[in-house]
Amino acid sequence: MQQQDECPQLDSAGGALYQRYAASIFAYLRLHAPSWEEAEDLLLEVFTAALEQENLSWLTEKQQFVWLRRVAQNKLVDRYRRSMHFSTLPLEQVIETVQVEEALTPEQLVVRREELEQLYTTIGKLSLLQQQVLQLRVGDGLRFAEIAVLLNKREEAVRKMFSRALALLRAIYDQQ
User: Fold this and answer.
1) For residues 46 and 66, what is the distance between their CA atoms, to the nearest angstrom?
2) Which of 9, 66, 132, 143 is the most buried (most CB within 10 A)?
3) CB-based contacts of 47-54 (< 8 A; 24+ apart in sequence)
4) Mean pLDDT over residues 139-148, rounded?
5) Residues 65-71: contacts with CB within 8 Å, 24+ apart?
6) What does the alpha-carbon distance between residue 2 and residue 5 come to, in Å, rounded to a whole number?
7) Rounded to an integer, what distance in angstroms lies between the CA atom of residue 54 and that of residue 13?
8) pLDDT tens digits, residue range 4-22?
9) What is the pLDDT of residues 85-137, one digit of tens each?
10) HSE (CB half, 13 Å, CA atoms) of 72?
């Protein structure tokens, strides 16, 4: 994600808007986009659209956030409709995976794949909301307050949901 000082074309109002909402909008996009790079591209499109709008300064902060989130949602839908539904992985991720797997013995490799399959299956038993909270917290490293804003929940509710999801995962693993 680019910082404001790397974007000289941002005026002070646009820069303030970016500083205030970029992290939250990016987290929302990352939750729904297939890759980090895709989310960054969409973030750029969202703030480009924001810079083209002259009436955003007249909106309250909450209205600005709602407007940006709606644009982000529309950009996700547009990108999804245009895509050919090919799954892509960043080259770095493929290289890292290959290097790690090459270092393992065949037995370790089989055990690792079984463990990952078991983890994915177990996570699949959680509710969609619990899966999203886990992805945002563990996968994307967001704070509970940021997750709460993205999911329109209270921070305490998100903390409880995360805790219950981990407890449920532990209980399922203990049974197995």
Assistant:
1) 12
2) 132
3) 47/14, 47/17, 47/18, 47/22, 49/75, 50/14, 50/17, 51/9, 51/10, 51/11, 51/14
4) 83
5) 65/21, 65/24, 68/17, 68/21, 68/25, 69/25, 69/28, 71/46
6) 8
7) 10
8) 444 444 456 678 889 989 9
9) 455 556 676 677 777 767 777 888 788 888 888 888 888 888 989 988 988 88
10) 27
Q: What torsion do the CA atoms of 91, 97, 98, 99 make, to the nearest 10 degrees?
A: 110
Determine the length of the chain. Answer: 176
Inter-axis angle of helices 12-32 and 61-82, nearest 10: 50
Residue in the structure block whose two tokens are 């002070």 = 12
What phi and psi, each to the nearest 5 degrees, are found at residue 128?
-60, -40
Structure tokens at 107: 């037995």
Which two tokens mark 165? 């999801």
Query: In sequence order, which residues have a C-beta less than 8 Å from that of residue 15 and are 6 or more positions away?
Result: 4, 7
